[in-house]
Design brief:
Helix content: 40-55%
Strand order of the largest sheet: 3-2-1-6-5-4
CATH superfamily of the largest domain: PPM-type phosphatase domain
Structural class: alpha+beta
CATH topology of the largest domain: Phosphatase 2c, domain 1
Order of helices and strands: HHHEEEHEEEHHEEEHHEEEEEEEHHE
Oligomer: single chain
Number of helices: 10
CATH architecture of the largest domain: 4-Layer Sandwich
Number of domains: 3
Number of strands: 17
Radius of gyration: 36 Å
Length: 537
């Protein structure tokens, strides 16, 4: 009999609570109505001010060019152009009273410098920034505006910011471009929107008051029921949850007298927190290990980058040659590398190489390979002898089977003769000044270094003339896969190189990089990429 009474009481309690929830929904519906009304009004006002800010910066960006502003921006000496621009901006601000600030500034990586800050007749001069004043970015401005400046584009949408001095405000920006379409400065328009809350509160006040009065009586009636049936158990649950922050190990579920959903939640929460506590400890340990690995990889990336020669021009005292090289690993560190160095006063060593594999093992093997090649080359022997010695040392000193594909050449300055060996590398592209175009150098491709301890290589000789060029690269370029699952290939390399033969070595590298990125599209890089462009002047 008591069990039936208990079950009946539980069913009645649930039904009672469901009834109370229906009443509470009246309050929620009122809140929803107020929320929808507030959002609708807010969206309309914000949209209007956003359009005003966007239109203003677009107008100024289209009207003002960098050539007009350059003298004043770089010297601070106001000329006729700067005066005309300032008047135009002042008039624009005067006719748009809601725009609090309109200004042109020159950004850099950490801050921006004010150039012209528009002022209206009713502005306080103390709030106007002078030429040369600087302002540090907020995180939002740094992440959103600086990429737009580098890309010479306007903000895609109006931003919403907030700080202690100006409160909430909308802002938009657009670039000040030169005749070539490159951004040198930015124009920004700001409008504060703190007044918006007061405006909306005034409009929705009547609606709110009506709804509050209509549900006040109902709320007073249900308060006691909510407090007895839901409020007290929830207070106990809240106190138990808060105790976890003070180091409590479990929740005293015996305090929940009624066998209802809240008690079930308390029991489930207690069990969940046990799992969370264990999981948190595991995450802390994993995070610490991940941070350690990340820090070590960051150092490894810096070390590898510092190992490769990166100061150009490579040989400023030699007018006979010019070169540029670049390496982009697929991971934090890679197995590709390039090198160039003076063997003696009359000979220059040139290297591009690709270690089998990727990541840290390949990077370590790359360090060994690069060091061995350079050390052997400085002994004054031929390229074939250098790679024979290197291959023997790599094979005999490593318990792990790793090989390296190498193109190594020695250029003689006095005769413009290039002696080289291609040990498993890609066929270079050779430009002859006499023909005016790049073609593949069909040389002898021999096995990679390190395959066997005793390797025999053959020196190849190439006579170069003034104006001739050599483009060296690893297999990461021709094997790049594009959006259509096809490889870039050597024919595209030649087509790209021949599309602009007036480039200097650095421009040649950048030309291929751009074409490669365009071909790859959104596809991920799949291998390390290394290039070297060598010019005979």
């Amino acid at each position: 009999m008591s069990q039936e009474t208990s079950h009946k009481r539980i069913r009645m309690t649930i039904k009672t609570r469901l009834s109370l929830i229906l009443l509470v929904l009246m309050v929620l519906m009122a809140g929803v109505i107020i929320h929808i009304t507030t959002n609708a009004l807010s969206d309309n006002y914000l949209s209007f001010e956003a359009d005003r800010a966007m239109d203003t910066v677009d107008l100024i960006s289209r009207t003002v060019s960098w050539e007009q502003l350059q003298h004043y921006a770089e010297t601070g000496e106001e000329d006729e152009n700067a005066a005309r621009i300032r008047k135009f901006m002042n008039d624009t601000k005067e006719s748009n009273n809601d725009l609090n600030y309109i200004y042109i500034f020159v950004p850099d990586e950490t801050q921006f410098m004010y150039v012209i800050d528009a002022i209206a007749s009713d502005d306080d001069p103390a709030n106007i920034s002078a030429y040369g004043d600087t302002f540090e970015y907020t995180d939002t401005e740094y992440n959103e505006m600086l990429p737009d400046f580098k890309a010479s584009r306007s903000s895609e949408d109006v931003m919403l910011g907030e700080n202690d001095e100006f409160g909430a405000y909308l802002y938009a920006w657009a670039p000040i471009l030169d005749k070539d379409g490159k951004a040198h400065a930015m124009v920004e328009a700001d409008v504060t929107v703190d007044w918006l809350a007061a405006k909306i509160n005034q409009i929705v006040g009547g609606v709110t008051m009506t709804l509050v009065v209509s549900i006040l009586v109902t709320v007073l009636i249900i308060l006691w029921f909510l407090n007895f049936i839901v409020g007290k158990p929830l207070a106990i649950l809240k106190k138990g949850v808060e105790s976890y922050r003070e180091g409590a190990m479990d929740l005293d579920t015996s305090r929940f007298k009624r066998n209802d959903e809240i008690r079930e939640i308390a029991v489930s929460f207690d069990e969940l927190m046990d799992k969370v506590r264990n999981y948190t400890e595991e995450v802390k340990r994993a995070s610490a290990e991940q941070e350690r690995i990340g820090a070590e990889l960051s150092v490894a990336t810096q070390i590898q980058g510092d190992m490769l020669p990166c100061i150009f021009p490579a040989f400023p005292d030699l007018e006979q040659i010019d070169l540029f090289a670049a390496m982009k690993p697929i991971k934090e560190v890679g197995g590709d590398f390039y090198d160039f160095f003076r063997i003696d006063r009359n000979h220059i060593g040139l290297v591009t190489a690709d270690v089998e594999g990727k990541g840290i093992p390949a990077a370590l093997f790359m360090v060994i390979s690069r060091t061995l090649i350079k050390n052997e080359a400085l002994a004054g022997i031929s390229p074939a002898q250098v790679l024979e010695a290197v291959s023997g040392q790599l094979n005999s000193s490593s318990n792990i089977s790793m090989i390296v594909a190498v193109w190594f050449g020695i250029y003689e300055l006095s005769t413009r003769r290039l002696m080289y060996v291609n040990a498993g590398q890609q066929q270079p592209a050779l430009y002859r000044a006499s023909t005016g175009k790049y073609e593949l150098l069909r040389d002898i491709t021999e096995p990679e270094a390190g395959k066997e301890e005793h390797m025999n290589y053959t020196d190849c000789e190439l006579a170069l003339e003034r104006g001739d060029r050599l483009f060296l690269y690893t297999d990461g370029i021709p094997e790049t896969v594009g959006a259509r699952s096809e490889e870039y290939g050597t024919l595209r390399i030649l087509r790209c190189l021949n599309s602009d033969t007036e480039c200097d070595p650095q421009e040649t590298i950048e030309l291929v990089q751009r074409d490669l990125e365009h071909f790859r599209g959104k596809a991920e890089q799949q291998d390390d990429i290394t290039m070297m462009s060598f010019y005979v002047n």
